[in-house]
Design goal:
Layout lengths: L3 H4 L7 H8 L7 E3 L20 E3 L20 E3 L23 E7 L9 H19 L8 E9 L9 E3 L3 E3 L11 E14 L15 E6 L6 E2 L15 E8 H9 L12 E6 L5 E14 H6 L22
Parallel strand pairs: 1-2, 2-3, 3-4, 4-5
Antiparallel strand pairs: 5-11, 6-13, 7-12, 8-11, 8-13, 9-10, 9-12
């Protein structure tokens, strides 16, 4: 994927040029227009119906056009470091799938410091998550392997995640659910914060080197990168965030049974995280938690189970009711 900002100089007035450029590539699948100083995203972006991945990070727009909902193939949306973003519109739901296979969905809202209505934002994220899950739990693709990953501001893990640990990892025992026909997957949440650490010279010279990793582990550690840009001059330090990961039943079993692991290792299973501190920063995992998800959970989902704001505080907060 060639980034747009590599082909054109980043100027605030580039929105018109962007429209003209995009109109000639309606079959575009991946688009990276991050850090182009864009003051707005044109409505015409909704015409790119083939888009699967869209990176808008680091731009200066205040909101997204409502036409973004028309991107019915969009599986990954990156809004990290959009520090002027105040409002999140309704996000697209992927269209009905007819085949199995592996699908990886992602929504990254890291370091969007001016989001003004967090309750609305959480509602939009919740709607995106549940509607996409419902697409994948149709009988026609019940064998699909799904991973969904969300990064969003938040200061507490909701109590809905009924197994929690104030550590960087948490043990998981799937033996009670592995044969349950109503079990559809597992939802995991990680609370983390980034601090300033001037004495840290970084473990790698390249700022693009991955920093945050998480994954299901047993006899062999298997981590994947959480795609967050932790470059020092971009990150707002001291702001809590949540990473929420959903693995479908088929994907979770696949992770457990991938060689050299075997299903006999399930009693040693855990969800773990680790970090490589970027230059002049320190990433701290405060807490993690998980919940086995069943069919009835999907039917009973509502946004109050996950997201709320504390009107007496400007601090972003997740609901912590029982």
């Amino acid at each position: 994927m060639v980034p747009f900002n590599f082909l054109y100089p980043p100027k605030p007035e580039d929105s018109l040029g962007l429209v003209l450029s995009l109109s000639s590539v309606p079959c575009l699948v991946y688009l990276d227009i991050s850090f182009c100083n864009l003051l707005r995203i044109p409505d015409e972006i909704g015409n790119l119906h083939s888009l699967v991945g869209l990176n808008l990070g680091g731009n200066k727009f205040v909101t997204l056009p409502s036409t973004i909902k028309q991107l019915s193939n969009l599986e990954r949306l990156n809004l990290e470091h959009c520090k002027q973003l105040k409002y999140l519109p309704e996000l697209p739901t992927i269209k009905q799938k007819n085949i199995g296979g592996y699908y990886e969905l992602g929504l990254n809202i890291f370091d969007c410091t001016k989001l003004s209505d967090m309750e609305h934002c959480y509602s939009m994220v919740f709607s995106w998550m549940t509607q996409n899950l419902q697409v994948f739990f149709q009988p026609t693709i019940s064998s699909a392997r799904i991973k969904m990953e969300i990064v969003i501001p938040g200061s507490e893990i909701p109590k809905w995640f009924n197994k929690q640990s104030a550590r960087t990892a948490i043990s998981m025992d799937p033996s009670d659910v592995i044969d349950d026909a109503n079990w559809i997957g597992v939802a995991i949440s990680v609370l983390f914060v980034t601090h300033q650490h001037p004495m840290n010279l970084g473990e790698r010279d390249d700022d693009r080197y991955p920093t945050f990793f998480c994954g299901v582990v047993n006899s062999k550690q298997r981590y994947t990168v959480v795609p967050i840009n932790f470059k020092r001059d971009l990150v707002t330090v001291g702001l809590d965030h949540l990473v929420t990961v959903f693995y479908s039943r088929q994907q979770f079993i696949h992770l457990l049974s991938t060689p050299p692991n075997t299903m006999h290792d399930i009693h040693q299973t855990a969800f773990g995280t680790f970090t490589r501190n970027p230059k002049c920063l320190r990433v701290v995992v405060k807490k993690c938690g998980y919940r086995w998800v069943f069919k009835e959970d999907l039917q009973q989902f509502n946004s109050n189970m996950f997201f709320s704001t504390n009107s007496s505080s400007r601090k972003r907060k997740l609901l912590t009711r029982d």
